[in-house]
Amino acid sequence: MSRRSRPEMIAETRAKLIAVARKAFATHGYAEASMDDFTAEAGLTRGALYHHFGGKRGLLEAVIEQIDAELAERLAAVAAAAPTRWEGLVQENIGYIQLALEPDVQRIMLRDGPAVLGDPANWPGALACIASIRGNIERLQADGVVRADIDPEAAARMITGSSTDAALWIANSADPAEISRRVIPAFKAMLEGLLASL
C-alpha cells in the first residue's frame, strides 16, 4: 500500500469537508447547518475545517466555487451544442436563469450565498462570466450578427446583471416556476436588441 503525499491528504480532507458541507447547506441551509455535524460526518475535527477554510463562511465560499465550476461546465456544453454562436449565447444565458429552479442552486447560490457573501456580482466567478460573454459578443460583432455600435463590455455586464437578477428573483419567489416562465421571454427579447438585424 503506497503512502499518500501531503498534498493528496490535504486535497482529500478539503474534498470531504466540501462534500458534507454542500449536502448540509442544501438540506438545512447555511444558518442551520452545524459545523460539528458535518465535520463528524466527514470523520474530521472542527480544527480541520478552520485550518483549511478559516470557518463556516470560507467553507460556503468553497462550496459555491465548486457549484459555480460545475454550472459553468454544464452551460458551456449547452452553448457548444447550439447550432449557431448567437443561439449558443442565448441558450447559455437562459440556461443560467433556469438553473435557479434547481433546489441546491436556489438555496446555496441564490439565497444563502448572497446573504452571507454579499452581492454575487462581486464573486470571482462573475468576472470570468463577464469576460466570457464579452468575448462572445466581440466574435458575434466580427461575424456581423451583433450591432457594431454596442460596447461589448457594457453588453456583457448588462447580460450578466440581468441574468443574475432574474435567477435571484426566481430563487427567492413563492412560485419559482411561474417567475421563470415570465422571465425567459423578456430576457430573450432583451438579448435580441443586440442583433444587427432581426
UniProtKB/TrEMBL annotation:
Domain of life according to the entry: Bacteria
InterPro entries per the UniProt record, alphabetical: Homeodomain-like_sf (IPR009057), HTH-type_TetR-like_transc_reg (IPR050109), HTH_TetR (IPR001647), Rv0078-like_C (IPR049484), Tet_transcr_reg_TetR-rel_C_sf (IPR036271)
Pfam (any one): TetR_N
Residue ranges the record marks as coiled coil: none
Domain HTH tetR-type: 11-71
GO molecular function terms noted in the UniProt entry: DNA-binding transcription factor activity; transcription cis-regulatory region binding
Keywords: DNA-binding
DNA-binding region, residue range(s): 34-53
Protein name from the UniProt record: TetR family transcriptional regulator
Organism: Sphingomonas psychrotolerans
